[in-house]
Amino acid sequence: MNGVIILLPIALLLGLAGLAAFFWALRNNQFDDPDGAAARILIDDEEDSV
Amino acid sequence: MSAARQLSEEHTSVLAVPTMHCAGCMSKIERGLLRRDGVIAARVNLSSRMVTVSHDETLDENDLTRFIAEAGFEAQPRRRQAERPYSAVKPLLAPLAVAAFAAMNVMLLSVSVWSGAEGSTRELFHWISALIALPAIGFAGRPFFKSAWSAVKRGSTNMDVPISLGVIIASGLSLYETWVGGEHAWFDGALMLLTFLLAGRVLDAMMRDRARSGVEALVSQAAKGAQVVGADGSLTYLAAEDLQPGMVMRVATGERLAADGEIVSGRSRFDQSLLTGESRPVAVAQGETALAGTLNLEAPVDVRVSSAGRDTTLAEIARLMEASTQDRSRYVRFADRAARLYAPAVHSLALLTVVGWLVAGASLYEALVIGVAVLIITCPCALGLAVPVAQVVASSALMRAGVMVKDGSAFERLAGVDRALLDKTGTLTLGRPVPDAQAIAALGVGEAGIALALASHSRHPLSRAVAKALAARGVVPATLENVVERAGEGVFATHNGWGVALKRPESSGTTAVLLRTNDGADRLIPIADTLRPDAREGIAQMRLQGIECSILSGDTVKAVAAVAHETGLTAQANARPEDKQALVGRLRASGHKVLMVGDGLNDGPALAAADVSIAPGSASDVGLQAADFVFVQDSLSALPRTVRASRKTMQVVKQNFALAIVYNLFAVPLAIAGLVTPLIAAIAMSASSLLVVANSLRLMRAAK
């Protein structure tokens, strides 16, 4: 029972943190361009490479 | 903050670039733009095929279009630029996240209760579950409550009514159980139900968003404005809605007219195929009328606007369409038809169960608990997923094959089709000029290089067609000097000191261009609109699928007869937009399910009136917006493929419903007998949902 009293708030807080992170992402337009986000990682940073 | 303020005061333009598809395209466009003076920022959105550019006042959209063209992509400015595209997915993401978060946490607590937590521990866990679940249900359940409430207000019912009732009653009963320290709370079941159903809704909305952004990127063809000649001879650009009767617009070669009007100077030929279906360009001389939406093919002309905006022929067709669209909206989806039977059956079953247990001598409380168990177990979890998952999987399979699905219910409507009407120009044919393949192949290497170099200097539709055909054959352009384009005549230049030209032939019996070079005789390259590839095979396959096809065209009898002969179809020529609409109406009245395939403005009313409609990606705005499916490739094999995919989808949807009903046949008797605990409900719900999803995934290869 004592363990539960510590563990439960921890579990809930972690879950809430995840939820908050998701809402943050939603507000900051992270879900506007899922295809583009996937492709962007393939773009080279060096412009000169031909 | 001040930096952000600064940025928003810069000019922002949004351009559609329909052809970009990969990381390479993105970086080419972004870097190509950023290299220019005056461009402050450029950001590509690959999902919607748009580029948002912030720039200073020295640049306008035409400059940006040119920059992107020089990077190798075609772009079109958007009409309403500042407006953010509406997304159906976004408002559902937050409810889904909340429901999923709450369901996971409550499930964790429920598992401990099921595995034997007792006494004060169980009570504590129930209370925590209630604290998490009640606000979550209130927030995540709103989409369902709203829709159910509006259905009840109208006196009808839909799938959301049993869902809302089940969720609300389950939460209420669980709260009571928690209050009195009872054994079973159903919070986990209610939340899991919401999570699954919201996932189904999000999938459904994703499909619609994707199709809409695809179609939006294609929509561009109608003229958005015109260069207006002022009293002092100056040119100003006015948007189509600002044009007034009496103004004079200057229409360059290759431009579409923004308004109806009378030609005051110059003469040219106009492509009216979008408006009337007629493939042959129509010559219009000074004093005669040119129509909005037609394409100027030959020489620049000045046109005095006679009617603009809502008075044009174009707007007239739009009104015809609106009337037909209302007719179609009466179609009732399969799922809603099922709900009309399902909801009353479930509710009376639950009521009978309560009455039955009361008669058998149970207490009111016991009878109510069992009644609620029946409601929860019959909550249409699998039913809510059955249709959207199948449609999403099928539409992404079709999307990969080049067909965009604009409306989920289109699958149901297309699956039952037994009669198809096909437009000729732009539908059976490509609807754009294609140079004769033999004439192109007959050109020598030197000639081809000169022809490509000349053609690429002109924006004339015929030059573009020649350039495209030659570039596709891998021809290397020759170097030219002193290139001049003379309107109405052609492109002239010198090559190694010799005069060369790509011009209009003197005797223009058919549409053609004349190539004059220094070696050999002049070459005549006939240019015509040809049948789509696989047209005959596609139609033969449709016939095998039990769909009778015929041609319905606004073109002349002669032009239609040629295509009818080639495809072996019966045909009706000279059909005006209202004739097409009337024929669709007659066929529907005689019991046929009609598919209309068309692209032009003149097909718009028929597209909207038919049971289901398909348009090619090259179609007019009106055609694209009226159609349920849009296919982007040239090949006509897209038609039988779409029909096949729709029929498979409906098969899977019906299987899904059958699975859901079989599940109910097993689970409902248990619930009525009072044997269902929250544990059993959770297992049954997730098992049936997974089964339905797995069955739908078989549609992955439906478009093969």
Structure description:
- The complex is a heterodimer of chains A (50) and B (704).
- Chain A has 50 residues and is mostly helical.
- Chain A has one domain (2-40).
- Helix content of chain A is 66%, strand content 0%.
- Chain A has 2 helices and no strands.
- Chain A has helices at 2-27, 34-40.
- Chain B has 704 residues and is α+β, with helices and mostly antiparallel strands.
- Chain B has 5 domains: 2-77, Alpha-Beta Plaits (2-Layer Sandwich), CATH 3.30.70.100; 90-215 and 332-385 and 671-692, no CATH class; 225-316, Calcium-transporting ATPase, cytoplasmic transduction domain A, CATH 2.70.150; 403-431 and 532-632, HAD superfamily/HAD-like (Rossmann fold, 3-Layer(aba) Sandwich), CATH 3.40.50; 434-528, 3-Layer(aba) Sandwich (Calcium-transporting ATPase, cytoplasmic domain N), CATH 3.40.1110.
- Chain B is 51% helix and 17% strand.
- Chain B is built from 25 helices and 26 strands.
- In chain B, helix 17 crosses helix 18 (461-472) and helix 19 runs parallel beside helix 24 (638-672).
- The longest helix of chain B is centred in the last third of the chain and has 35 residues, at 638-672.
- The radius of gyration of chain B is 31 Å and the shape is elongated.
- Chain B starts with a helix and ends in an 8-residue tail after the last helix.
- The chains are: A mainly alpha (50), B alpha+beta (704).
List the helices and strands and how they pair.
The complex is a heterodimer of chains A (50) and B (704).
Chain A: H1 2-27, H2 34-40
Chain B: H1 2-9, E1 11-16, H2 23-34, E2 39-45, E3 50-55, H3 61-70, E4 76-77, H4 90-114, H5 119-140, H6 142-153, H7 160-180, H8 187-218, E5 225-229, E6 235-239, E7 248-251, E8 260-265, E9 268-271, H9 273-276, E10 282-284, E11 289-290, E12 295-296, E13 301-307, H10 313-328, H11 334-359, H12 364-377, H13 381-400, E14 403-405, H14 409-415, E15 419-422, H15 424-428, E16 434-435, H16 437-441, H17 445-455, H18 461-472, E17 481-486, E18 490-495, E19 498-503, E20 512-516, E21 523-528, H19 535-544, E22 548-552, H20 557-567, E23 570-572, H21 577-589, E24 594-597, H22 604-609, E25 612-616, H23 621-626, E26 629-631, H24 638-672, H25 678-696
Parallel strand pairs in B: 15-22, 15-24, 22-23, 24-25, 25-26
Antiparallel strand pairs in B: 1-3, 1-4, 2-3, 5-6, 5-7, 7-13, 8-11, 8-13, 9-10, 9-12, 14-26, 16-21, 17-18, 18-19, 19-20, 20-21
Helix pairs in contact in B: 4-5, 4-8, 5-7, 5-8, 6-7, 7-8, 7-12, 8-13, 8-25, 11-12, 12-24, 13-24, 13-25, 14-24, 17-18, 19-24, 24-25
